[in-house]
Amino acid sequence: MANILTLLFNGISEGALYFLMASSLSIILGLMGVVNFAHGALFVWGAYVFRMVFIQTGSFFFGIMAAMVAGFVIGFIFEKLFVSRVYGNVGAQIMITLGLSIVFTELIRVFWGPTPLIVTRPEFLAGVSHIQLGGVGTVIISHYRLFLIIVGVVIAILGHLLLTKTRIGMTIRAGVQSGEMVSALGININLYFTLVFAAGGALAGLGGALFAPLSQSINPEIGNMFQLDAFIVVVIGGMGSFMGSAVGSLFIAIMIALIGWYVPALSSVAPVTIMALVLIFRPQGLFSLLGLLRQAVKK
Amino acid sequence: MSLLKVSGLVSYIGLFTILHGIDMEIQPGEAVAILGRNGAGKTTFLRTVMGLVKTRSGTIEYKGQSLVGKPPHKVSKMGIGYCPEDYGVFNELSIEENLILAKHKNDAATAERIAYVLDLFPDLKKAFKRPARTLSGGQRQMLSVGRSLVNSPPLILIDEPSKGLAPVVIEKMSLALKEIARNSTILLVEQNFHMALIVTDRYYIIDEGKTVHNGLMKDLENDKELQHKHLGL
Ligand SMILES: Nc1ncnc2c1ncn2[C@@H]1O[C@H](COP(=O)(O)OP(=O)(O)OP(=O)(O)O)[C@@H](O)[C@H]1O
Ligand SMILES: [Mg+2]
């Protein structure tokens, strides 16, 4: 039992990382219709920039900020110079974002080399607590993982408030349904496309930065791995749904943690299988299913 | 000077040329119908004016300024309101948010205008905080029309507001549009001849992407032969 609780805790903390990737992928997909295969590259850049600044300044906080700025700037460049030219052309979008992903991952190898680099955890988050639960056993709580959960919750709340309470959020939600109609009301939707793409880059960068001290080792391939799982989350949560990606992230991360422990052989197949099932039976995403259940209960 | 002047307009979507020659002149204060069969190009014409469909050749002038090549948000800001086919209402936004989103300015005049819209369509006032997806088709159309009025645009383009609505609702909507037409210039795409008769005084007929005829509604009303030829009535 205590073992399961520890696994759940670890799963939830990794869910926070999935959430950073998936929520931004989901909004980019919902608003611009772009499947952004370059998102993983922004994650890697976040991780490497974080490590560099963390080592140079000794400040964990500066490292995080630098990673977010890097993600924002690269995301901005991606959108302005490349992606904005191929809106509405899905084939070209796939080629361009895949191309950017390859080039920017290769650039990591050029600057920092192909071999894994060690990352340390900041001292104030390096500890572990053993929590005795009467009769159940001892649950192991890593302080760094607790920190990840807090960051995930804070970002989810801020994102939700931004989307529901501000004019910017209102415009984004409207644009997810019809960017064309938003522009016909007098709003320059292209500005929002750039802004959302860059902000999504910042979130991916944050994800990479937070991942580095968790795994304590980074390499140029970490982005691809997270990107695939994030896409699965987007499918499960429903594209364009911010809160759907939060639920989907928790679901996938907890499942990977549990299956990874009990049936390691299935750990990489399970998420893809679930995605396939969702696509077949519930293509609009599981989150809308939750909404339906809620309505049914209300009635 | 005419409010809207279109000459020799040719527009295209991808590889297809859809409009082959539209000529039209609308004076301030007029209410004009655009009639024509299914697939004639009525919707494409309104979308071309809005900048949502690309112009290949010809001119579109609004208050003497060219609209050709202008992006939709600039066309909107120049003072053209647009209600697309199928409402274009944002389902996940509340009625209030749909109206707020359309505001070009945050001034007293715009606030007054929203109050006017809610008086014109009391249904919207009742459901003010509810998501638009909870509205009926008729109420969505009211929201779409109401939203296009928020900035008091001198010209309003409305695409088939009667589509899919029950006869009683069409009647109500016709009267509301008639009321709106007292202060604004309206360009109304309609297949419902009855509604067009109530709201507009003059018409253009579009067929196969061209304007083929125009005249006064009251003449068309009595000319069964013309109705049959161009409208299939
Ligand atoms: N995206 C598109 N790609 C190719 N052809 C299109 C596209 N949209 C419209 N068309 C074609 O353009 C022509 C005009 O369509 P449009 O929607 O403007 O007609 P309409 O007069 O509004 O018809 P309706 O009364 O049915 O609304 C049609 O033949 C249609 O098939
Ligand atoms: Mg039409």
Helix content of chain B: 25-40%
| Poorly predicted regions of chain B | none
Total count of helical runs of at least 4 residues of chain B: 10
Strand/helix succession of chain B: EEEHEEHEHHHHEHEHEEHH
Helix content of chain A: over 70%
- Rg of chain B, alpha carbons: 17 Å
SSE pattern of chain A, N- to C-terminal: HHHHEEEHHHEHHHH
What binds here, in terms of ligands, is:
adenosine-5'-triphosphate, magnesium ion
Number of domains of chain A: 1
Secondary structure tally: strands of chain B: 10
Q: Could you report the average pLDDT of chain B, rounded to the nearest whole number?
A: 95
Enumerate the strands of the largest sheet of chain B in spatial order, edge to edge or round the barrel: 6-7-8-3-9-10
Determine the N-to-C terminus distance of chain B: 35 Å
- CA-based shape of chain B: globular
| Mass-distribution shape of chain A | globular
Largest interface comes to:
A-B, 18 and 23 residues
Which fold name corresponds to the CATH topology of chain B? Rossmann fold
The spatial strand order of the largest sheet of chain A comes to 1-4
Radius of gyration of chain A: 19 Å
Overall structural class of chain B, as computed from helix and strand content, comes to alpha/beta
Outline the biggest β-sheet of chain A: 2 strands, antiparallel
Structure description:
The complex is a heterodimer of chains A (299) and B (233). Chain A is built from 11 helices and 4 strands, in the order ααααβββαααβαααα. Chain A has 299 residues and is mainly alpha-helical. Chain A has one domain. In chain A, a hairpin with a 3-residue loop joins strand 2 and strand 3. The model of chain A has no long low-confidence stretch (mean pLDDT 91). With 233 residues, chain B is of the alpha/beta class. Chain B has 10 helices and 10 strands. In chain B, helix 7 links the parallel strand 7 and strand 8. In chain B, helix 3 runs parallel beside helix 6 and helix 7 runs parallel beside helix 8. Chain B is globular and about 45 Å long. Chains A and B meet through helix 6 of A and helix 2 and helix 3 of B. The site of magnesium ion (MG) has 4 residues of chain B, from helix 1.
